[in-house]
Amino acid sequence: MSTVATTSPAPPRTDFLRSLGSFPILGPVAALILACIFFATQSDRFLSGANFSLILQQVVVVGTLAIGQTLVILTGGIDLSNGMIMALSSVLMTGLYANSGMDPYLAVLVGMAVCVAFGVVNGWLHTFIGLPPFIVTLGTYSIAYSLVRIYTTATITDVPPALNFFGDTFRIGSTAITYGTVAMIVLYVIAWFVLRSTPAGRAVYAVGDNPEAARLAGIHTGRVLIAVYTIAAISYGIAGLLLVGRMGVGDPNTGQNGNLESITAVVLGGTSLLGGRGYIMGTLVGALIVGVFRNGLQLMGIGSNYQVLITGVLVILAASVDYLSHRGK
Amino acid sequence: MKLQRALVAAAAAVLAGEALAADVTVGLITKTESNPFFVKMKEGASQEAKRQGAKLLTGAGAKDGDNEGQVTALENMINAGAKGILITPSDTKAIVPALQRARQQGALVIALDTATEPQSAVDALFATDNFKAGVLIGQWAKAAMAGKKPVIATLDLQPGITVGAQRHNGFLQGMGLAKADPNSSNLVTAPQVVCSQDTHGDQAEGQAAMENCLSKNPDINLVYTINEPAAFGAYTAIRAAGKEKDILIVSVDGGCRGVQGVVDGKIAATSQQYPLKMATMGVQAVVDYAKSGKKVSGYTDTGVTLITDKAQPGVPSKDSKFGMANCWGTK
Fold it and tell me: A99, B39, B262, B305: most buried by Cβ count inside 10 Å?
């Protein structure tokens, strides 16, 4: 089995006869469906379009952060800086307009440019200096954290209408859906297509599975890694834009738990922290599992301490399933 | 068609409201679930809800300053059918758009303990007059320091939060060192203040901040702290420096551990506030709204008392025995 894994860089194909490990998205999807059935029996308010639209809105920011996190984790890395890069981009996008009178679209571009810079720095320090991603992104987390506070300590409330777009809604039947939800889903579909069906996507899996083998197969691993960290950072910038749309403010206190929350979504989605194995759509399901439990438990009247407790139990369960189904291969 | 459907839905909602008048749902959202202040608040809300036959939903941010966590809890509670939301906002500005949406959906929104910015973003505010709480310890400190030149350290909350600024500014105004707008969220300062650090109201951060302040200026003789955990952190640092006899610590909160600190001589004076009362009044207001459709409005002062065992002439105060009898948190 191990030779199969190292010589074929492509993501594992569907084969129901193999263990669950070969098709890790089944577990998370089953968990999500079971959770929905359970909450539907507990609260008559759970199964409604409005409530599902709300759950989607509530996972938009973490879900988008987790796209970048999934890419990084697929290469065997980890990104602790993502939430703070998002926070920096969101205070810049709002603050440059509110405090400096910059054109809002230009402000968004500046915010995105700063994200790209952070991504390039993360990737470069990892590949060319050879620092472990944990250390690199721990450092850039702190740098972004302090840059946010150097730039502003006050919440920015004067947000231009253009930046509220992703919080605006349209209706399908009687259910209001935010454009932010649509944006997140579109990003997932793009990421899914690229990872599954393009050489670039396969290179990401290859580098994460076995960098040495990938290099021998002619893949420029350094370039792949820098591209992954940069694209990931762009997803954090987009998350920042979606956050502004959802919250209607630029909040300097945001994003501090974005790293752990996005890693939670990735792990719940069945992606291995060891790299090279996992599904981007699993991450979306993972983010939804967290959102469904938070919402369902609240509807049942169970407080937030228990919501966090259950998330912890689910993470350990998901990681155990991944570990056990791959042990000895 | 659309109008028809809307009318049917509205009628159904009215009927449902009538049928469920006995069990009103109230949402309580605190900054965290661990701080004893909010535990006491939850206890008050839960007692009152039981007495009124209302259902209480509770939620909180992951930590102080977590606005998204509060917004998520708020949205979920509205979907759960909450008639009213009682909230201690973690971020007094950032929460405003979400509160406005909740009010548009027909919920009564009451801020407890901490005012939103603007205050009109909620229907009503039940809170301690935090500026007055600061003024009281400032006036006391001024009298207690009589004859000595104050060298002050302030251990504050975090930037941009009204409560933190109101207590800090009230303290300096009570000392007679600065004039401040009681509703401002910006800190004022004075030449006598030689060190100001943010502690997030946390004991460990309070200790680190005090250590830094003492190495910056060893002559500090008066310390204002945002709350009692920060005060205890400061005391640990001060005792380690062997200066516990030379430095007065004043604080705000009146938790049982804090009042014990007054008994033990660690904290010289503290302004006591009453979270249980805020929550009790909040639940009552929501139940009234659900039954009569009448909304409370404006600001209600839930009271503040200066607790010290060294009463100063001209500054009204009660002793630690009174403080212990009226405190919150475990004794």
Answer: B262
